[in-house]
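Deliverable D2.4 — example input (C-alpha cells):
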C-alpha cells in the first residue's frame, strides 16, 4: 500500500484498537493466477512481539486450499469520508477522500485440532456478542461439533504490517478543524467516525505543541 510519510500509523496501540474495532476484513490470495477474496471477521492476538490473525471460513470455500502455497493479504478498511474542496482555504484544490486502512501480510496455518477449532468458535462468540454466550453454551455439543466440521479454522502470523491514516494531515490546522467539524455533524456514520479521528489527532498534536 502506498503510504506517504505523513500518513503512516506507527502507534501499535492505536493500530490494535483500529483492528479490533473494525475487525471484519478481506482475506486475499491467488488461485490459478486470479486474485480471490473472502470477507471474514478476525480475532487479533498478541503473542510476545508477534501479531496473530485468527478466523475461519466455510469448508466448501476453496480459498483455504491456497494457504500452503503463498502469502496471504488481509485488508482492514473502514471508515472513510469524501472531502469537498469547499472546506479548504483556497479555491485551487480538488476533492479527495479521508480514510484509515491496515494491510497485513503473513502465512496462514490451518487449525486442525477439534478442541482448538471449538476454542476459536467460543472466542468469537465472546468477542462479538457476550449476551449470546449463555445460549451458545446451551447448544448440544453434537450440534457444535457438526458446525466445527463444516469450517476451516486458521491463523495468520503477521510478517508485514502497513497502516495508513489519511485524515487531511497535509492541510492547515484551521482547515483540519473545519473538516472535522463538518464531518462530525454528518448523518453518515463513516463520516462521523473520520471526524472523531480528526478531532483526536488535532488534540494530540495540540498537546505535543504545548509540551
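Example output (designed residues):
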Amino acid at each position: 500500500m502506498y503510504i506517504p510519510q505523513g500518513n503512516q500509523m506507527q502507534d501499535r496501540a492505536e493500530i490494535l484498537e483500529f483492528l479490533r474495532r473494525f475487525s471484519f476484513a478481506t482475506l486475499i490470495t491467488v488461485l490459478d493466477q486470479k486474485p480471490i477474496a473472502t470477507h471474514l471477521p478476525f480475532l487479533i492476538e498478541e503473542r510476545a512481539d508477534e501479531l496473530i490473525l485468527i478466523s475461519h471460513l466455510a469448508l466448501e470455500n476453496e480459498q483455504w486450499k491456497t494457504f500452503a502455497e503463498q502469502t496471504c493479504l488481509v485488508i482492514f478498511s473502514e471508515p472513510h469520508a469524501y472531502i469537498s474542496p469547499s472546506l479548504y482555504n483556497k479555491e485551487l484544490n480538488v476533492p479527495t477522500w479521508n480514510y484509515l486502512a491496515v494491510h497485513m501480510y503473513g502465512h496462514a496455518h490451518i487449525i486442525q485440532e477439534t478442541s482448538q477449532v471449538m476454542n476459536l468458535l467460543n472466542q468469537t462468540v465472546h468477542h462479538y456478542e457476550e449476551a449470546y454466550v449463555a445460549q451458545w453454551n446451551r447448544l448440544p455439543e453434537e450440534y457444535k461439533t457438526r458446525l466445527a466440521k463444516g469450517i476451516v479454522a486458521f491463523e495468520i502470523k503477521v510478517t508485514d504490517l502497513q497502516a495508513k491514516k489519511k485524515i487531511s494531515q497535509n492541510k492547515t490546522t484551521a482547515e483540519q478543524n473545519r473538516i472535522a467539524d463538518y464531518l462530525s455533524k454528518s448523518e453518515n456514520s463513516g463520516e462521523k467516525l473520520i471526524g472523531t479521528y480528526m478531532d483526536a489527532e488535532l488534540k494530540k498534536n495540540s498537546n505535543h505543541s504545548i509540551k
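The chain has a mean pLDDT of 94.
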